[in-house]
Amino acid sequence: YPAGSYVVVTAQAFRAQVLDMFEPQDHPDDIPYEGAPPVAPYDNAGWTLAYQMGVRFDRVLEGPPDELPLEALPDEVLPQAGGADCPCLPAGEVRGGAGVAGWVLRRTANDAFAAVEDLLADGREVRELTGLMEEYAPGDFWIAAFAGDRARLEELAGARGIDVDGATAPPGTLSEPLRRPAVALLDEYGGSMESGWTRFLLDEYGIAHEVAFPPDIDAGALSENTVLIVPPGLIPREDPEDGDFGGPDPGEIPEAYRARLGPVSVAETVARMLDFARSGGTVVAIGDAAEHLAEHAGLPLRDHLVTIGEDGGTRPLRRSEFYVPGSVLRVRVDTSHPIARGLPEHVNVLFRRSPVWQVGPEARRQGIREVAWFDSATPLRSGWAWRQQRLHGGAAVVEAPYGAGRLVLFGPEVMFRGQSHQAFRMLLASLFL
């Protein structure tokens, strides 16, 4: 292991927490009797942070750590330049001298998107590399040279721990200039927990956004270049027959917040979302919101988690036939797709009774693409997956053209509790499509 590697010793008072973050959770099959539905756990069955964050590590069972030249880290470790006596993360480097035509930023780090957001906010020209290159990969970012570029890039590299390379010419063909995304995040009065975690993620990566409420969508507030993010739990399968959505009495709500009141309705709000996509917008939906949006849009996607019923038709699997509470599963990704460029071949995702689709011939004819899918009968990494083989072959992430725009459907909760760092990049990349 090279100098600068991290060693987490387990001979310490916090050994249990260390193991909790690195070891997979192995939840037992909690089934009270044969044929009964599984007993739901109180919360997630698996959460291993090292898996969710894509941390590469080895478990070392031999070799006393007191023989290694180790130095304790402080409570907060930030990217910064420092010598041998600095227990810090390495700061990013800006490599290249004068006379460069531009700079290359690899997209293999989530923070690359934060840097791109900042540069676009500065009014700088950023493009993506396309085609085949020897040293770089399709999707890496090309930043055209500008006055004071080195100082600005050193500032971003130092803050984000990313490397930037100067080049006398683009190392490949270039896309059209990227546009800074205008992001709208759907929420509801009183606060959606899932919307809150998504907002946390956007704030962490410096992605400018506005919080939108159902009345905003109903009033046609989405502009042409907006990307709308719809977290789980915010799109119903159908409106109540009596039209009573419940909710607080407006008279009991401070006047400043009454404009936020009102539900997401299929007849009005979802219809507006789909009109927005048809006219060129992008809607990114997550979890059950993705499942219901696909149904309302009439996409030719079939539920993968079905079986043949007694009448010869298909029916959804019962809980006694398939059950995955919150657990970490592995999916295969199409690294040639713009959403998944720069990712490894397999990614860990947080699956919580999430939708899984079957992408058939008709869907493919309409240009619908699988971005991530279950390529194994044993995708479980941590937690509990009763009869997990049912997932094999199903699509987890789908991108679908819709009119002049697109729908991006994430089955797994890629923003879950601010922990799914390895899957964050697909969500961040979907904002720059």
The number of distinct β-strands equals 22
Low-confidence stretches: none
Mean pLDDT, all residues: 91
> What fraction, in percent, of the residue positions are helical?
10-25%
Shape call: globular
Short description:
By secondary structure, the chain is α/β, with parallel strands linked by helices.
Structure characteristics:
single chain, alpha/beta, 10 helices, 433 residues, ten-stranded mixed beta sheet, six-stranded mixed beta sheet
Structural overview:
This protein is an alpha/beta fold and 433 residues long. 21% of the residues lie in helices and 21% in strands. The protein has helices spanning 15-22, 49-52, 111-121, 149-160, 193-204, 214-218, 266-278, 288-297, 361-365, 421-430, and strands at 79-80, 89-90, 94-95, 102-105, 126-130, 141-144, 164-167, 173-174, 182-186, 209-212, 226-230, 282-286, 301-303, 306-308, 314-316, 327-333, 346-351, 357-359, 369-373, 380-382, 395-402, 405-410. Strands 9, 10, 11, 12, 16, 17, 19, 20, 21 and 22 form a ten-stranded mixed β-sheet that branches. A six-stranded mixed β-sheet has the order 3-7-4-6-5-8. The chain has a two-stranded parallel sheet with strand order 1-2. A hairpin with a 5-residue loop joins strand 14 and strand 15. The radius of gyration is 24 Å and the shape is globular. The two termini are 38 Å apart. The relative contact order is 0.14.
